[in-house]
């Protein structure tokens, strides 16, 4: 009998996640009967220690709110993860050491390059969590100027004006606001500053169209959700788990 290979996702309130279905379909297609993928809903990051004690765990994905906190439980980071300061994929190496990677950056870069125009030279990043760090890394790589809008930053949701929005034609929404099941929730945002020159990337993928995306589309902006990014980062994670 084949040795079980356990993979999964750690996060908080993650029943909405597509990852389990995505990987279970992959295992079926590749006829990998020893592989399982589970959702590990942790109330606090310390609970990950118990998961890491399981010798059958080969790795896991990490989502909100643990992308930064999980680093304390790892032995090593990839170059990207170290530069970004956030991890969304963990691999348990053959010698038992735990290595953190960031495949969010890979997925976001693929999404950005598929949709951005030459005039998208300045961006607003809404939120400042782990996903926002991956977004900043990619924008820096492509020389796109950016400002962060968050509750605690100098530029925040109370003082963000439509004029500032007009000047930044690339908007990346990285917060969980509007994620299923809270689909009626939406960030306070001056949508009147948007135009058909704007590209809005909302990293949420469930629902397909958040209230934020709908409001932006009404102003003529081009809108993209997080589904393609999610698929791409998942494929990169799969590649990492299966590299010797």
UniProtKB/TrEMBL annotation:
<dbReference type="InterPro" id="IPR022893">
    <property type="entry name" value="Shikimate_DH_fam"/>
</dbReference>
<dbReference type="InterPro" id="IPR013708">
    <property type="entry name" value="Shikimate_DH-bd_N"/>
</dbReference>
<keyword id="KW-0057">Aromatic amino acid biosynthesis</keyword>
<dbReference type="InterPro" id="IPR046346">
    <property type="entry name" value="Aminoacid_DH-like_N_sf"/>
</dbReference>
<comment type="pathway">
    <text>Metabolic intermediate biosynthesis; chorismate biosynthesis; chorismate from D-erythrose 4-phosphate and phosphoenolpyruvate: step 4/7.</text>
</comment>
<dbReference type="GO" id="GO:0009423">
    <property type="term" value="P:chorismate biosynthetic process"/>
</dbReference>
<dbReference type="InterPro" id="IPR036291">
    <property type="entry name" value="NAD(P)-bd_dom_sf"/>
</dbReference>
<dbReference type="GO" id="GO:0005829">
    <property type="term" value="C:cytosol"/>
</dbReference>
<protein>
    <submittedName>
        <fullName>Shikimate 5-dehydrogenase I alpha</fullName>
    </submittedName>
</protein>
<dbReference type="GO" id="GO:0019632">
    <property type="term" value="P:shikimate metabolic process"/>
</dbReference>
<keyword id="KW-0560">Oxidoreductase</keyword>
<dbReference type="Pfam" id="PF08501">
    <property type="entry name" value="Shikimate_dh_N"/>
</dbReference>
<dbReference type="GO" id="GO:0009073">
    <property type="term" value="P:aromatic amino acid family biosynthetic process"/>
</dbReference>
<keyword id="KW-0028">Amino-acid biosynthesis</keyword>
<dbReference type="GO" id="GO:0050661">
    <property type="term" value="F:NADP binding"/>
</dbReference>
<dbReference type="GO" id="GO:0004764">
    <property type="term" value="F:shikimate 3-dehydrogenase (NADP+) activity"/>
</dbReference>
<feature type="domain" description="Shikimate dehydrogenase substrate binding N-terminal">
    <location>
        <begin position="9"/>
        <end position="90"/>
    </location>
</feature>
């Amino acid at each position: 009998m084949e040795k079980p290979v356990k993979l999964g996702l750690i996060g908080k309130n993650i029943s909405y996640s597509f990852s389990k279905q995505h990987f279970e379909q992959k295992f079926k297609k590749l006829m990998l009967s020893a592989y399982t993928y589970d959702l590990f809903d942790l109330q606090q990051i310390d609970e990950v220690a118990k998961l890491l004690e399981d010798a059958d765990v080969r790795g896991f994905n990490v989502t909100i709110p643990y992308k930064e906190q999980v680093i304390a439980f790892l032995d090593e980071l990839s170059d990207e993860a170290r530069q970004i300061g956030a991890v969304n994929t963990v691999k348990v190496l053959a010698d038992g050491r735990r290595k953190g990677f960031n495949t969010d950056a890979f997925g976001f870069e693929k999404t950005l390059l598929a949709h951005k125009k030459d005039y998208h030279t300045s961006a607003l990043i809404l939120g400042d969590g782990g996903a926002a760090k991956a977004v900043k890394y990619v924008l820096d790589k492509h020389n796109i100027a950016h400002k962060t809008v968050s509750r605690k930053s100098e530029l925040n949701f109370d003082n963000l004006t439509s004029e500032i929005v007009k000047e930044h034609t690339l908007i990346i929404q990285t917060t969980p606001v509007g994620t299923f099941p809270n689909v009626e929730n939406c960030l306070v945002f001056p949508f009147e500053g948007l135009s058909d020159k704007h590209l809005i990337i909302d990293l949420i993928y469930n629902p397909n169209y958040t209230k934020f995306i709908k409001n932006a589309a009404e102003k003529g902006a081009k809108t993209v959700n997080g589904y393609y990014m999610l698929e791409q980062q998942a494929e990169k994670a799969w590649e990492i788990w299966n590299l010797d």
